[in-house]
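Weekly modeling sync, notes
Attendees: S.R. (lead), two postdocs, one rotation student

Agenda item 3: backlog of single-chain predictions. S.R. asked that every request posted to the team notebook include the full sequence so nobody has to chase files. The rotation student volunteered to paste the first one in as an example of the format we agreed on. Action items at the bottom.

Example entry:
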Amino acid sequence: MTTPTRVLVLNSGSSSVKYQLLDMRDDRRLAQGLVERIGEETSRLVHTPLLAGGGGKRERTGPIADHAEALKLVSEELAADGLGLDSPELAAIGHRVVHGGLRFTAPTVIDDAVLAEIERLVPVAPLHNPANLVGIRTATALRPDLPQVAVFDTAFHTTMPEAAARYAIDVETADAHRIRRYGFHGTSHAFVSRETARLLGKAPEEVNVIVLHLGNGASASAVRGGRCVDTSMGLTPLEGLVMGTRSGDVDPAVTFHLMRVAGMSADEIDVLLNKRSGLVGLCGDNDMREIRRRIDEGDERAALAFDVYVHRLKKYIGAYYAVLGRVDAVAFTAGVGENAAPVREAAVAGLEELGLAVDAGLNAVRSDEARIVSPEYARVAVAVVPTDEELEIARQSYALVREGSSGAHEQDTEK
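Predicted structure, as returned to the notebook:
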């Protein structure tokens, strides 16, 4: 009997589903796609078979009522390539789940108790966990016999010490409402920190890395010997670095000031800080390519936005250097981190005394490969490491299923 080696990775958003099918024998992608605008008249499914001879990209447009219909269409597209969900070669379906609180510290096989706990965490992840739950329930209905595995964005950060995870507010209030720093993008930080160690020719346990995940959402982490000891996002993904539309760190009293002086409601301030701040709030654009184009044309608002972005980034590099004590590498990843050479250069400029520098020629090279862009003499490697969250989810899901473990690695610290 053939051992199943394929994993379908699902990332279910409120109105979208991203998916990839991988063969874990060699980490090869067999197909990938996106369903977007679910629930609208203008829904669209784009499916790309990646097997040799599988043909080109296929697209469907028209109303897709809900996630159940979306996943049925995904199943049809996969079946057309001989990769259907009924295949005996499918070992598991891995689900990205944004918030696992403190209870889930590792990939977890989903059962009713796990579903209930993910639902219990909805108040701290109201935009993400409900959509993740819909994807899990829909996939389970399609393949009830197959292991469904949750891989949590927060899991990698559960190794943070209490000194890093605690906010300095009344302990009883914080515990009663589960207020603490959880961190996000953990799947990316885990993957990139390990890949950075590999790039340096060392084991993860031997390396201290500052990971900078810079996309429209952005976060930093301090990773000591393969374990996260601090990260920039907190109770929600709003804290930390300046992002595309999110403010990052801001004085909490700004909220009270806007309520009292501007008459804004809590919901209006929520929208302001999450959707009308960051780069878009500073200059009207959240695309770093456009911001750099405007800077080249002499646009002062774009230049200010870039400077604010880099200033916050540099502060976190310095802070996490202090947290780690010794840094072997600073790794840039995600859309901006991988592609915006000026951001990398500006972020480490002036930090030569800390052993950080970039080589202008190496930094300017565009590549899909992990690479070092610092000069040979630099004491700390500056690396560009493409992230691969889907591969990380597939690897974790497959390893868990192969082990035959329940995967319910839990801590009893959450109230």
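Discussion: group reviewed the output briefly. Residues 405-415 have pLDDT under 50 and may be disordered.
Action items: rotation student to repeat for the remaining queue; S.R. to check formatting next week.
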